[in-house]
Amino acid sequence: MDLFSNLALGFATAGTPENLFFCLIGVLLGTLIGVLPGIGATATIAMLLPITFQLEPVSSLIMLAGIYYGAQYGGSTTAILINMPGESSSAVTAIDGYQMARKGRAGAALAIAALGSFFAGTVSTFLVAIFAPPLTAIALQFGSAEYFSLMIVGLVSSIALAHGSVVKALAMVALGLLLGLVGTDIYTGTPRFTLGIREYADGLNFVALAVGVFGVAEIMRNLEGESTRTVLMAKVSGLLPSRQEFKEMIAPVIRGTAIGSALGILPGGGAILASFASYTVEKRMSKTPEEFGKGAVAGVAGPESANNAGAQTSFIPLLTLGIPANPVMALMIGAMIIQGIVPGPNVATEQPALFWGIIASMWIGNLMLVILNLPLIGLWVKLLTVPYYVLFPVIMAFCSIGVYSVNANVYDLYAVAFFGLIGYVLAKLRCEPAPLLLGFVLGPLLEENLRRAMILSRGDPTTFVTRPISAILLAIAVAVLIVVFLPSVKKKREEVFVEEA
Amino acid sequence: MKSISFDTTNAICGALFVATGAFFAIQSLGLDLGTTVRMGPGYFPLVLAGVLVLLGAIIFIQALRVEGEPIDPFAWRGMLFILPAPVFFGLTVRGLGFAPSLFFTAFIACFASQKMNLFFAIILSLLLTIFSVAVFSYGLGLPFERFGPWVRF
Asked: Domain DUF1468: where (chain B) (predicted)?
């Protein structure tokens, strides 16, 4: 079987001592930042990106991936123990997880979350392995028109899954695309929107934008509520779930995995949506829906499995098409480009060891998380008591070092301050930053493919609808847009996000 | 007539998008637009800028009909100390060198919190600098000058 020989190659790659070490570092760092409130996976990966230059491409991508799913685990720990989700995707876990903790079942809740996540991680790793090759084969047929349409689908879906106003999210995409075009035009060499600053001729630094919008702006938001933060922690005792709890978690874990895997592939933040969808489904399916919100096992097991499955399968569009499904994946693209790898369908055929190594490392990383995290919970809990005013100067210093070490360009540091301000103001105006970042990454690609497609079709714009794959993709994009604007869906969407806030 | 009520947040938001879009549009017009077949460097940005202006206008107009929550207060102190920190690092990292520049960057950032005092800020910045020099400069071997020309005697 091809699948098994591929997976064998993957495990051989991921299993070298060096790669295991970086996988371990990644998941530990990920858990750490998942536990610490006020710093997310996006900002951390952006900060660490430059430091991974020195590593082998496989090692660096394995480590960055580890940070991402490690953060999901860490986020659920704080959600359960102190009712404060470290990551937005574990916001739902806090509802029932914290109630379980208050009933003295904190240990069991943590174990359920960890085991559910591990199961989901295992299944979705295999899903990635099964679905990646055929999708890659399709993607190899893609021309400029198809790529253009595919990116439109990605951008539109990111809008659909963003919080709040759809029009604002659309505007954020447009703004992101425009910012992505800053720099030298690839066809003519004309500098665009550089305001005459030569240092911006290569475009705005992606790391600077991500650090500014996701890191610096977030710090300022956290500083607003400084005086009100108090930590009330539940005690952890007895990690093993009871037999009854074990029975109750099986079905939700399986359903959560299925929901998460399906939604994770969608561009635009699969893990968050997956956990909400799973919670809703569990509540509907339950014979005792009144227990939800009072410490239902299914309310922890389902969403936790779903968000982990979603986190894993969001690698599918990245690995097969080179299209990011969420800001973290956008950063992974940045990491690949820095390492000299062109993201897209060619990765699987030209660099099979890298491709399958990353997939295999996800499973290894999930195993590490289960083995490490349950005993280490005491340590993570201690970390929660570190006050924020110690954390943020450290974050600021690391941000500065990280951004500067990308190109040793001091103008990138000014860009960090600028985007920090922009990100903060936009957050104040209730605009989500994720569509902006996706737009920024896709801007140059979108323009390049549009221009090439128009040249190839001799200026005939119908090329996007006469080529079948492109037409289907555009139809999907239109359908998503229509659905988002439908009054009933709009209302439902608002409800979902209100619940989250 | 009823008293004028509008959603301040969205009105500002819409106006900002319109202004930004207009800025990009004006800049694009200075570039070669080309034709639909061979798009020049200004073509795609001009279209996008137009879309941004349009969306901004929609947000602005929608804001006029409803009343919304006011914007929460800004963290002025945070902005005052957080934003200059990376700028300071950028201005001094070549002159002062990595270690002193990082120390002051962290030191500035510290004061964004009301809970910070002078003594603790110095200790924290110092520890952070030692750690960073050890990890990034010696450990990872990033090519930074530890002490720059301004502090060399």
From this structure: 12-144
- Residue B70, in any domain of the structure: no
Interface test with A, best of B113, B124, B130, B135 (most A CBs within 10 A): B113
Contact A115, A312 (CB under 8 A): no
State whether B49 and B15 are in the same domain.
Answer: yes
Q: List, for residues A339-354, the tens digit of each pLDDT value.
A: 778 777 777 778 888 8
**Three-state SS at A74:** helix
Q: Which residue would you say has higher pLDDT here, B1 or A232?
A: A232
Q: Where are the domains of chain A?
A: 2-500
The first and second tokens of residue B11, run together, are 């009105």
For residues A360, A365, A367, A369, the Cα torsion angle rounded to the nearest 10 degrees is -170
Contacts of A305 (CB under 8 A, 6+ apart): A116, A117, A119, A120, A252, A253, A254, A256, A257, A260, A278
* Conformational region of residue A416, where left means phi above 0, alpha means psi within -120 to 50, and beta covers everything else: alpha
User: Domain span at residue B29?
Assistant: 8-65
Q: Are residues B93 and B128 in the same domain?
A: yes
The helix or strand, by DSSP H or E, that contains position A192, with its residue range, turns out to be strand A191-192
Distance from the Cα of A433 to chain B's closest Cα (Å) equals 14
- For residue A174, the distance in angstroms to the closest alpha carbon of chain B comes to 6
Interchain pair A397, B48: CB under 8 A: no
- Chain A to chain B, count of Cβ pairs less than 8 Å apart? 198
Chain B residues within an 8 Å CB radius of A425: 16
Structural domain count of chain B: 2
Report if residue B2 sits inside a domain: no
Residues B117 and B93 reside in one and the same domain: yes
Same structural domain, B61 and B40? yes
* pLDDT tens digits for range A221-267: 878 765 554 555 566 666 677 778 878 888 888 888 888 888 777 66
Final residue of a domain: which of B65, B91, B114?
B65
Q: Are residues B85 and B145 in the same domain?
A: yes
Residues 6+ apart with CB under 8 A from A374: A110, A111, A114, A239
Query: For residue B103, how far is the Cα from the chain centroid?
Result: 21
Of the residues A25, A211, A229, A394, the best mutation for testing chain B's interface (the one with the most B CB atoms within 10 Å of its CB) is A394
In the numeric block, which tokens belong to residue A80?
Answer: 């359960």
In a domain, B21, yes or no: yes
**What is the DSSP track for B111-136?**
TTSTT--HHHHHHHHHHHHHHHIIII
Sign of CA dihedral A429, A169, A280, A304: negative
State both tokens at A320: 């097969």
Integer CA distances (angstroms), A114 to A35, A237, B104, in order: 14, 16, 41
Domain boundary among B65, B85, B103: B65
Residue B106 counted as domain residue:
yes
The encoded tokens of residue A356 equal 């399958």
